[in-house]
Amino acid sequence: MNKIKVLIIDDSALVRKLLTDILSSDPQIEVVGTAPDPIIAIRKIKALHPDVITLDVEMPKMDGLTFLAKLMRAYPMPVLMFSSLTQKGAEATMKALSLGAIDFVAKPTVRLSEGIEDLRSDLTSKVKTASSAKPRRAIAPLLEIPPKFGMDAIIRSQKVHPAVEGQKVLVIGASTGGTVAIEEILNKLPEDAPPTLIVQHMPPVFTKSFAKRVDGLTRMTIVEAQNNDQLQQGVALIAPGGMHMILNKGPKGYYVLVKEGPPVNRHKPSVDVLFRSAANTLGTNAIGIILTGMGDDGARGLKEMRDAGAYTIAQDEETCVVFGMPKVAIDLGAVDKIMPLGSIAPFVMNMVKKD
Predict the structure, then answer these.
(1) Local structure of 218: helix, strand or coil
(2) Pick the CATH number of 4-131 from 3.40.630.30, 3.40.640.10, 3.40.50.80, 3.40.50.2300
């Protein structure tokens, strides 16, 4: 079996050595080269033909985002971003994912040497996933969506449309490649779309930046969920990184609990946790959607949703960056319909209008 060839691009000699040592310890991975800046990286890409690149955002001579944009136009290939757990780092990472990066690995928040085991596990698994993922060119913005200027730029309307019993609720789960997939679905939903709940595997800080970014691109209102947030028509709640999101029902309607707890399927937030709560709470009023991602998180929860009467959808293999979570769900018999990413939002809105 051929080893996965990796090129490491980082201006720090210490980081280049650390990542080289981590990846070289895995028998399935070979670090074929390193580069301190994008100019040298381009020469090594042409000479070494790596399967996967790891890329730092902040580098001399050319920043990582500019380099990534040029790379995806000329040599589209799987790229993993190496990102700091800061607001600035999160915003840059969201931009990188929209430019075509497959996924990201968070830098340890303590000294590099102290977070090495977590980094080793995350980095090696994501390199292996990226090696079989489909490279993506940058997504084109949907120009027909008007920018959010006018009154909404200064003050939000206080008119609220709480979710009521009998109303459909969209429940979405994704992992690798999911930020772009979620963005595409939300871009195609109208401002009065059904209440929407989303779990995307991400660490803290990143989910807030993700919500902020997508909110500026869509007709819906997109926010990072807070404890006791009520479901509202036209609003999508994204589970915060490092917390589980659970749907519940009270006297005033549906709301979410954002809570601590152990990782489920190695993830927090977990798609399975959200999907199970939707099965318990919504029954036939839910539409469950499982999108691109590695692993199996969400598959069993989607089966529980379907068994409870929900309609369930899986993204097809052709449009997935990684056909992992949807495939497991399909194999479990958890899926009513398999469809390409671009067809999901129109199909869902057609379902909702018929009800």
Answers:
(1) coil
(2) 3.40.50.2300
Tokens (6 digits) for 305: 């949703």
Domain 160-354: state its class: alpha beta
CATH 3.40.50.180 domain locations along the chain: 160-354
DSSP per residue, 68-100:
HHHHHHHS---EEEEE-SSHHHHHHHHHHHHHT
Q: Of 122, 201, 209, 272, which residue is the catalytic one?
A: 201
Q: Quick check: 293 and 177 in contact, CB under 8 A?
A: yes
Check 83, 175, 209, 277 and give the catalytic one.
175
The share of the chain scoring above pLDDT 90, in percent, equals: 75
Q: Is 159 exposed, middle or buried (0-12, 13-18, 19+ CB in 10 A)?
A: exposed
Average pLDDT of every residue of the chain:
89
Cβ 78 vs Cβ 133: under 8 Å: yes
* Domain(s) of CATH 3.40.50.2300: residues in the chain: 4-131
Q: Does residue 98 carry a catalytic annotation?
A: no
175 in catalytic set? yes
Question: How many other C-beta atoms lie within 10 A of the C-beta of residue 138?
Answer: 17
- The pLDDT value recorded for residue 299 is 97
Cα–Cα nearest to 131, from 294, 335, 331, 329: 294
pLDDT grade for 115, boundaries at 50, 70 and 90: confident
Query: Out of 10, 122, 297, 316, which one is annotated catalytic?
Result: 297
Task: Say yes or no to pLDDT of 151 above 50.
Answer: no
Q: Is 125 labeled as catalytic in the residue annotation?
A: no
pTM given for the model: 0.86
